[in-house]
């Protein structure tokens, strides 16, 4: 029998979220260190910041992408374009996913054609969000290279998708919930598992 798809989290409101239940796996300083490392990894892999574009997947991938861009600017002195990519209508599990209005897609002025696009998200789980992001990008342009950076990889992939840059590999049970909170959007900052 085939495995069940991951269970859907409860519908989310768009307002700031408070502290989740469970055990803290990353605090604000851990997140800062992980993003600093990821930023250096991206620069090493790309041999600098040339042609880079960071696209955050809403909601929390967007502030994470901005934080990476800030770090790259500090290290390299280059302003990397940052955008956001709404994947809502490209999901293949829309019926199971909590109803949520479309989010914001904002492609930087230079576009993504011929660029190295780094998709940024908070959690990588089944891989269906990233698959949807690849489809969404296909309607926008044709990057030379697409890479993936995530704050947390919790495993349990349904699809052959992997991250190039990972803040923390977090072994988890399918029944567990990983919750990310970021100061830009929420009342607290950290990663919790429950
Ligand atoms: O690999 P997957 O199984 O697709 O899961 C990962 C996605 O799930 C979460 O998004 P969610 O839809 O919960 O919304 P959020 O971005 O507002 O947290 C998370 O932010 C990732 O985008
Ligand atoms: O536990 C999970 C699963 C998917 N997305 C999350 O943010 N957390």
From TrEMBL:
Residues 1-23 are annotated as: Disordered. InterPro entries: PRTase-like (IPR029057), PRTase_dom (IPR000836), PyrR (IPR023050), PyrR_bifunctional (IPR050137). It comes from the Bacteria. Residues 27-165 form the Phosphoribosyltransferase domain. A motif (PRPP-binding) lies at residues 117-129. Belongs to the purine/pyrimidine phosphoribosyltransferase family. PyrR subfamily. Also displays a weak uracil phosphoribosyltransferase activity which is not physiologically significant. This is Bifunctional protein PyrR. It comes from Nocardioides marinus. The gene is pyrR.
């Amino acid at each position: 029998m085939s495995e069940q798809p991951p269970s859907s989290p409860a519908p989310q409101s768009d307002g700031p979220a408070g502290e989740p239940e469970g055990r803290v796996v990353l605090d604000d300083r851990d997140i800062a260190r992980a993003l600093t490392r990821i930023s250096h990894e991206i620069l090493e892999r790309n041999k600098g910041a040339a042609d880079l574009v960071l696209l955050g997947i809403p909601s929390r991938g967007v502030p994470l992408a901005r934080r990476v861009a800030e770090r790259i600017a500090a290290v390299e002195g280059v302003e990397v374009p940052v955008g956001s990519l709404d994947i809502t209508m490209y999901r293949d599990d829309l019926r199971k996913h909590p109803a949520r209005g479309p989010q914001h897609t904002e492609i930087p002025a230079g576009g993504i054609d011929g660029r190295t696009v780094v998709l940024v998200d908070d959690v990588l789980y089944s891989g269906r969000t990233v698959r949807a992001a690849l489809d969404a990008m296909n309607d926008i342009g044709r990057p030379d290279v697409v890479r993936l950076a995530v704050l947390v990889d919790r495993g349990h992939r349904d699809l052959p998708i992997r991250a190039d840059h990972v803040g923390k590999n977090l072994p988890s049970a399918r029944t567990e919930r990983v919750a990310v909170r970021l100061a830009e959007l929420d009342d607290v900052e950290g990663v919790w598992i429950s």
